[in-house]
Every structure is written in structure tokens, then in C-alpha cells.
């Protein structure tokens, strides 16, 4: 049996922090997790999860410090603009050797290391929202004071929610344009395929079922087969058949250029955010 993870705190268990919390709880590997949220309502919803201590900051103003002081791994899940103030708040309370993990887009490891006590191990992460169903892709970049053993602990934490890719910090923003924003690209494609089905006379319910289950089934086939997606596409595309005609239209639309341009735009925005724009 895999060893349990150490005590974890998630400061700001919003959409992403909450998704990671769900994965941790479902894994059974995190017997002690403390989370903070601003409101009583959000805190109460998370308090029902097994092994979770949920703190409402409107009721306990020192909740972030208390949570950080009790934890071996502290995840920072607040909005990027709120990160520096939160780090200054918890810095005096951190245990020696406690690992701090950023979930905040655009906030550099250097920012964390400049505010936290010297030698604090800091890692920057970039998970995506499928964490809530255990299917995330998380990019993980270690800071200057992190040991391989500490990276391994944080990797195990995120593996409760899906796959983990270790990258240098310089690759975190490019990774965010693929896996971070990627679910939105897939949902957009499903939206448009659903509209096409409705336009061909199907009800909204049937159109959604066809589009959604086709994506879900195709992804499951890809995962189960281990084949290259291009090979699976070729198998569906019979010579001179209907799929070949449709693929020709999609290729003529230069989807390669569209996706390159879209991810370039996302990367430019990530760099603007990092610069405070």
C-alpha cells in the first residue's frame, strides 16, 4: 500500500484548489487536509468531505496562519494578485522544511522565494480542471531550494488527480497554453459539433449526446489503444469515403495554424499577466 501523504493545507480552495482537494480525498492517500475559504458557505460545503478541516476566514481571521502552521505541504490557491500578501501573512507560521506549492498562474518562484523565509522549498504547479475527476495534467517546476525527495512528495500529491509532467519554470507558461487552457478548446469543439448536429435536424439532447459521447469515446479509445492519434484518424478515414471528405475541409481550414495562433495568443497573455498587465 502506498504511504499516506503528509498533512496538506490548501489556502484558497476555490475552483482549482477545490478540484485538487476532491482528487486528494478520493485517493484515500491524504488523511489530513486543511482548507481555507473566505466565506462560511464555501467552507461548510468542503467540511463534509472526509478527513478535511475547513476554515472560513470570515469567522477565523487567522485561519490561513493556523492552516499553514499545521501543514507539511502548503498549496497557495488564491488569486495571483493576492499571493504576495498571503505569503507575508503565513511566512512566520511555516514549519521548518514545509513545502510551499503555487497554484497561481503568472506568479514566479522568485516572488515566492523573495517573501518566504530563506531556504523554503517552493514549487510552481499548473494543473487543469479535470483534476476533479482524477484526469488532470499538472506541470510541476521546482524552485532553487527543493530536494528530489520533496519534489517526489508533491508529485505524488498531484498524481492523486491525474498525470504529472516535471518541467523547468520557463516551460510552465507554454504548458498552460496546452493542458491548462486545453479543456476549454475541447469544450468549444464539442459545442460547435453539437450546433452542427442541431443544424442537421437533431434535437438538442440527441445532438449533445452524439457530440459529447463521440469525444469521450474517442479519448477512451486513444487511451486504451496506445496508438498515435494520427494512426487512429487514418483508420476511421476510409479512402474516398465521407470522413475523408470532411477531414479535407478541416485541413483546408488550416487547423494547424489556428491552434498555433491560439496557443501563441494564450502564451502572450500569460506573459502579460506575469508582468502585471
UniProtKB/TrEMBL annotation:
Keywords carried by this UniProt record: Amino-acid biosynthesis, Cytoplasm, NADP, Oxidoreductase, Proline biosynthesis
Gene3D superfamilies for the chain: NAD(P)-binding Rossmann-like Domain, ProC C-terminal domain-like
This protein's record includes keyword Manganese: no
Primary site of residence: cytoplasm
Pathway(s) the chain acts in: Amino-acid biosynthesis; L-proline biosynthesis; L-proline from L-glutamate 5-semialdehyde: step 1/1
Database matches in PROSITE patterns: P5CR (PS00521)
Residue spans crossing the bilayer: none
Domain Pyrroline-5-carboxylate reductase catalytic N-terminal positions: 8-106
Domain Pyrroline-5-carboxylate reductase dimerisation residue range list: 169-273
EC number per UniProt: 1.5.1.2
Catalytic activity: L-proline + NAD(+) = (S)-1-pyrroline-5-carboxylate + NADH + 2 H(+); L-proline + NADP(+) = (S)-1-pyrroline-5-carboxylate + NADPH + 2 H(+)
Transcription keyword on record: no
Localization (cell): Cytoplasm
Function field: Catalyzes the reduction of 1-pyrroline-5-carboxylate (PCA) to L-proline.
Homology family: Belongs to the pyrroline-5-carboxylate reductase family.
Protein name as annotated: Pyrroline-5-carboxylate reductase
Organism: Microbacterium aoyamense
Organism phylogeny: Bacteria, Bacillati, Actinomycetota, Actinomycetes, Micrococcales
